[in-house]
UniProtKB/TrEMBL annotation:
Protein name per Swiss-Prot or TrEMBL: XRE family transcriptional regulator
Spans annotated as Disordered: 395-415
Length: 415
């Protein structure tokens, strides 16, 4: 899908077109595609398999599907069933009006509890861990959406206490916010904006201030990467204004640090220094024994504050300070945060180049290009910008030729 530029709905439309050409009814929606991508559906129905093979020009096993060892092929879903399934997420998030038909009395009489919530939260932990290893992957995005829909659908088929319902809404919001971050990381900004609205609605219904902070803080980062500082400041101010930032200094610190990165785009050096000072002060007041959400403790610490400082100082053109914070961040970074390490190294190369340290900058960039991190969308874009700056700063230099050689080799897969 990524290779040919297809969205979930785009693939659904193409497969449905193949089905209609064979005299079949449309049975594929974006939810169906999410189940294919997440692995929830291991072996599509026969007409859908034929449609997929026609669209991609290869067998479904080449696409990663495998037939069950001992299981009958499920009956083809009806169009009404497909519509009802798609209605769940839209009805709950308010993105489309409508009601869902009631399930059978036997199903509706079942009960869900915190054990169901904990099961989903374990899957959320896996999503977070995978994102920190690689980041920016469409598979993470679609898997998160499928799990969010599962959390929502649980509430349609079973009874639950208000506490459990709130926890399920919060978990669904967490999954959608992870899809949002994956889309931001891969620079699919339109998709990220649509996920923001859905996640914010779910988070409001949950009453979970922590996940509301995550969503609005992500929105601030989204607008910063889109080059919209006014919107970024407004979104981040929503996050910084939530009561949880007054109760927990770690939330406050992250809010201030991301605010500094945004303010760097405005060139206001004093505001950047003030925000970073507030972030450092709040981090210093943090009680490490306090229980906090996994998504926060998995990545935010002094190393991440230093990395956001790099972003802020780079935007202000203060390259010496950016380089100093980059080295501090890399020295402190936890080893599992490979994606964050790659991004910080890309920023380091830019800071070195900004100071005229051409050989050092190329050395940093080459090491990044030759590693796994060079394939990350944000890193790849940073290296493209690095190339433009290098060729304007030191055209024809030995360092520039070395860099071009490595880039060409990497594109051929021989680096």
């Amino acid at each position: 899908m990524a290779d040919v530029g297809l969205t979930q709905q785009g693939l659904a439309d193409l497969v449905n077109a193949e089905l209609r050409a064979c005299g079949q009814r449309d049975t594929v929606g974006d939810r169906t595609v999410r189940h294919w991508l997440s692995g929830k559906t291991h072996w599509p129905q026969p007409p859908q398999r034929a449609g997929l093979e026609a669209v991609f020009g290869c067998s479904v096993t080449d696409l990663g599907f495998h037939p069950p060892r001992r299981a009958p092929v499920p009956a083809v879903a009806t169009e009404d069933d497909s519509v009802l399934r798609r209605s769940f997420l839209f009805a709950v998030t308010g993105t489309a009006a409508g009601t869902v038909a009631p399930r059978s009395t036997a199903i509706a009489s079942s009960r869900i509890g915190m054990s169901d919530v904990r099961r989903l939260q374990r899957q959320f932990a896996e999503i977070v861990a995978d994102d920190h290893r690689r980041g920016g992957r469409t598979s993470t995005e679609y898997h998160s959406l499928a799990l969010a829909e599962e959390a929502i659908e649980l509430q349609q088929v079973a009874t639950a206490t208000p506490t459990v319902r709130s926890a399920l809404y919060g978990t669904a919001a967490a999954f959608v916010s992870s899809a949002m971050w994956a889309a931001i990381d891969s620079r699919r900004f339109d998709a990220a904006e649509s996920y923001r609205d859905r996640a914010a609605c779910l988070a409001s219904m949950s009453g979970d201030m922590g996940i509301q902070f995550r969503i609005w803080s992500h929105a601030g980062s989204l607008f910063r990467l889109m080059g919209r500082p006014a919107d970024a400041i407004a979104a981040n101010d929503v996050a910084r204004g939530l009561p949880i930032t007054r109760r927990d200094p770690l939330f406050a610190s992250l809010g201030h640090a991301r605010h500094a990165a945004i303010l760097g785009m405005t060139g206001d050096n004093q505001a950047v220094e003030r925000a970073l000072g507030l972030a450092q002060d709040a981090l210093g007041r943090t009680d490490r024994e306090t229980q906090r959400p996994l998504w926060l403790t998995a990545f935010y610490d002094q190393a991440e504050l230093d990395s956001l400082s790099v972003a802020a100082f780079l935007a202000c053109g203060r390259y010496d300070q950016a380089e100093a914070h980059a080295h501090q961040s890399l020295a402190r970074r936890r080893t599992h945060l490979r994606r964050s390490n790659a991004i910080t190294n890309a920023r380091l190369a830019r800071a070195q180049l900004g100071q005229g340290e051409v050989d050092a900058a190329v050395g940093t960039a080459v090491a990044l290009l030759d590693g796994e991190g060079g394939r990350h969308p944000r890193v790849a874009r940073a290296l493209d910008r690095f190339t433009v700056t290098l060729n304007s700063t030191a055209p024809g230099s030995t360092a520039a030729r070395t860099w071009d050689d490595h880039r060409h080799a990497a594109r051929k897969g021989t680096a």
